[in-house]
Design goal:
elongated, 32% helix, alpha+beta
Amino acid sequence: MSDNRSLNIIPQSRPCVILAMSNPAWHTSFVEPLLPTSKPDTIREGQRTEMTRIAILIGYLLLVTARLTQTSPVSAEEAVLAFAVVTELPKDKGRVPAQVAIDGAVTPMTLLASDEILPNLAWKTLEVCHALKLEGQKTSEGFRVHTVRAIDSAMLPMVLQGFAGDCLLKKALDVAPFVD
């Protein structure tokens, strides 16, 4: 026994358990029965519950705020797809009168060209009865055009095809007497 004192070996009161790592988690099921049990900290548990409730409430408020901003006038600034048929010979290339179809409803509007659209070849060569596919914003002044593409009148929606056909017939009858 005197040798134990000289080596300062402390006798262990509990058996030693080596933890093994399999998968990414430590297996402590062998150690848990050896650890002293303690009461759960009710104050911390209550704080966690309250913090969880607050986090859920903040998340809910953020979702509601995001939903409200989608239905606000800011959504009116999103690009709208429209189709148009030019009704008159444009005197000013920045303001072109046309029949515009948006979501199946046809209305006479003025197409307002932005600075990016004016040099576009499709916009430079506009004539009466040209069919256009547009993206832009509907405003009180007319339809502000962001992108333009000349299309065949057969690619127009059905609500505009009749108008385009009548326009082409009228144009043909106006031009026919001058051909000879």
